[in-house]
Amino acid sequence: MEAQMENPVSPVLDLKKQILSGYREYILMNGHQPPSINAFCKGLNISEEDFYLCFNSFERVAEAIWSDLFNQVIQTVEGNLEYGERSIREKLMSFYSEFFCQMKSYRSYAMITLEDVLSTFGSTPTGMAETKKEFKAWVKELIEEGVRLGRVAERNKLTDTYDSLLWFQFLFLLNFWKRDKSVGFEKTEVAVEKAVILTFDLIEKNALDSALEFGKFIFQSIETK
């Protein structure tokens, strides 16, 4: 009987989870990142070689924590059987609902590691550069779907900025959630609903778009006479 080959991916994934969990725990207990990779590895009873097999710095560990959370949220949301039938507005709402639900387990870590996310307009919070790329790629797909279905207004170059607009919305809501002291973060739920409604009122087709399209049609009709 042939011996089964070990899957090298599984041990690496387990090691990665151990490092991510250990890093979060250290931050929560000490309020700052470990003094060195060597000291951190000794605390986890792993070698530096093990650490560098997964990451090349603490910054990459911090990036992976938020990136993994984002992807878990997307996987949960898109795994819902009703997801495909939802409008893009509803899809974004479901993302925020799941994201802030899972963030309850990350609140203490977020309060320590995330600075005022709106302190500088357009800035990226520490540890969220990768999440920013993934978020903007995901919402860009939503926007393209909306344009294709005729729900989102195609406004030439302005349409290309919608993903940045939604990223800023994400930062605004994250900052609001950090400051929210209401029971069960009820105020954040209201803020999410109002922010999403406002955003889609701006990017979806409306009376102004219809008027512009009608004007364009009239102008082109006159020219072709």
From TrEMBL:
Pfam families: TetR_C_23. Residues 91-218 form the Tetracyclin repressor-like C-terminal domain. Gene3D superfamilies: Tetracycline Repressor, domain 2 (1.10.357.10). InterPro entries: Homeodomain-like_sf, Tet_transcr_reg_TetR-rel_C_sf, TetR_C_23. It comes from the Bacteria. This is Tetracyclin repressor-like C-terminal domain-containing protein.
